[in-house]
Amino acid sequence: MSGPSFSRASGIAWENYYRAVEGRAPRPLFAEALGLAQRPGVAVDLGCGDGTETLALLAAGWTVVAVDSASEGVERLSGAVPAATAGRLTTLVAPFHQVELPRADFVYAGLSLPFCDPGDFGEAWRRTTAAVRPGGVLAVHLFGPRDTWANTPDMTFHTREDVHALLGGFEIRRLDEQDEEGHAVSGPKHWHVFHVIATRGREELS
What we know:
- With about 210 residues, the protein is of the alpha/beta class.
- The protein is built from seven helices and seven strands.
- The chain has a seven-stranded mixed sheet.
- Helix 6 (about 120-130) links the parallel strand 4 (about 105-110) and strand 5 (about 130-145).
- The two termini are about 30 Å apart.
């Protein structure tokens, strides 16, 4: 998870979080969505966090722009990148509603966009979706209103109807709703999460 709000919502310090997730596999949503991409091109990892997905993209031959609103994750990622792939990585520390993103063939925002302030989410979403080229793949997590953190004022939550509205102009390839008890690094948690994979039609204007 990514962004300053993560620490406030969960009560976990960044270093403790990174230690807890060290060595994890890429998230299933990421792996499934990447399988829809026809060839390595340009990818955006929005909320790169501990860098697991960025490193997987680099290893697969992608050119990656890795973004995080917290410098700790970007610093950690930069120290883990093999020299042979470092030339294909650009890192940015910036709020999602202000970052300038390139046009990309694959845009991944894993457990990151919900940590945008509600007043900033619309612009963050516009920039995220605008980055997806015609034929490109978008993979995101969005949080629902029954999530444990739903009362956190500087986070953003959506209903299933909201999610459908946000995806106008995309072909939805997967929309799964997780609504169950589970665990976070901070301990027991109710997860209400939408797992989304969508593609932009090739006929759309670039």
